[in-house]
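Entry 14: structure prediction run for tRNA(Ile)-lysidine synthase. Input pasted below.
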Amino acid sequence: MASSKKPRPSPVSAATAGLPGRVLEFLQSHHAAGRRLCVGLSGGLDSVVLLHLLHGLREQAGLALSAVHVHHGLSPHADAWAESCRRLCAAWQIPLVISRVRIDRRDRRGLEAAARAARYAVFAEQACDAIVLAQHRDDQAETVLHQLLRGAGVKGLAAMPPERPFDGGPLRLLRPLLGLDRAELAAYAELHGLVWVEDESNLDPGYSRNYLRHHVLPAIERRFPAYRDTLARAARHFADCDQLLDELAREDAGRAMVDGDLRVSALAALSPARARNLLRHYLIAQGWPAPPADWLDEALAQLLTARPDAELRLKLSGRSLARYRDRIHVFEAAPAIETGEWSWQGEAVLPLAGLGQLEFAAAWGEGVSQARLIAPVTVRLYPGAGQIRPDCNRPRRSVKNLLQELAVPPWQRRQLPALYCGGQLVWLADVGVDCAFQAGPDEPGWLIFWRR
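Run finished. Output C-alpha cells:
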C-alpha cells in the first residue's frame, strides 16, 4: 500500500545540515552540464530530498529548476503519487511535467527494464540542459553487486557515473547524491519536515534489486559495515578500467578501420582479449547494444575462420553483422530482399519502394542512348545471373564476376536495381550501361544515378 510518509526519527548531524553545500560543490564541479536542471521526481524520499536541495540552491547556483514525473500506471496508487508530486511542486513553485506512459507487462526485457526505458524516453523530451536523478551510495552498491551477479563486464561494474551524456546528444544526466547514504537523506528529510510517498513494489523480493536490498546487503553490512564505500570505490576502479579499454579500442580502431569498415585481418593480428575489446567497441559505436560475452566470442571465432569468399551473417537484437573479404559490415536489421517492378516513362526521379530512387539526368555523348531507349522501359531487381558488356572494347562478362571485381558484397548484389528495355538489360547499378545501349559521341543520353 502506498502512503504519504514523514521520516522516522534519525540523528541530525552537522554533516546532514551540510548537504546543500556538498550538492552545490557537485554542481559547481559539473558546470558544463548547464543551468537548466530537470529533476526526475518519483515522489519517493530520495527524489523529494533532491528537489528540496536544488530548490534551496536555485538563487545561489543560478538554476532554472523544473521536474518531470513519469506515470507508469503499474500501481493502483500511481494517480496518488502523481498528485503528491503536483502538490509539492505547486507549493515550491517548480514547473512540473507529468507524463503518462504505457508499459507492456509482457515485454521480453522485463518489467523493470521496460519501465526504465519508458522513463528515459520521457527524460529525453524535456527542455533542459541536464536531467538530475536521485540515486545515492546505497543504490550504487546495489548496482555493483547486481551487475557482478549478472556476470557483467567492467562497463557494467562501473555502475552509475555521477555525470554522463544522455543518448549521445547535448543533454546530460547528473547524479549529485551518489556520495551520500540513504540514511543521510532520511536525516535531512526529518530536519526539514519533508513528506514523501512509498512505492509498495520496493518491498517485493521478486525483483532482484529488492532481494539484494532487503536480504543480502543487510547480511553483508553485519560483516562488512563499510561495504557502501568499498563497492563505490570498486565502481570507480572499474570505471577507470573501462575508460582505459575504450582508449585502447580507439587506438586500435585507428589502425584497423578502412572507409568506416573494420578489417578482419586487423582483428586477427591482435590478442584474443584485445580483438574482443575492439569488436565490442566497434559494434557499440555503430549503435548496437553491448554484445554478450558468449556472442562476442562466437562472432570473433567465425569472423576469423570464415573463408574470404564466404557470406557470413551473424545476428543480435534485430541487427546483423556480415563479413565480405577483409571487411566487416553492420546493419540495423538483416538486409531484406526486395521484389517489385517499376515502369519508367521519362520522369526525372523514379522512386523504388525499399530501394531508394533512380535519378535521370539529360546528357550529351554519354550514358544511355535516348534514341535506343524505346518503351516499354522497366526497372526491377537484378536476378543475380547473366552477362553485360559495359566496356565496348571487351567481350561480354558475367555480372557475378564483375560484381566480385568491384567488391560489391553478396547481399548488396541481390538488391541492385536494373533497367530493361524490351526485356534486354540496359543498365545495372554499380556496373554501368551495356555497350548496345550506350550513347554515341554525337547523340543525347541519360545519366542514371541510384540514390539509396
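Notes: The chain has three domains: 4-236, 259-331, 341-451. Will compare against the previous run tomorrow.
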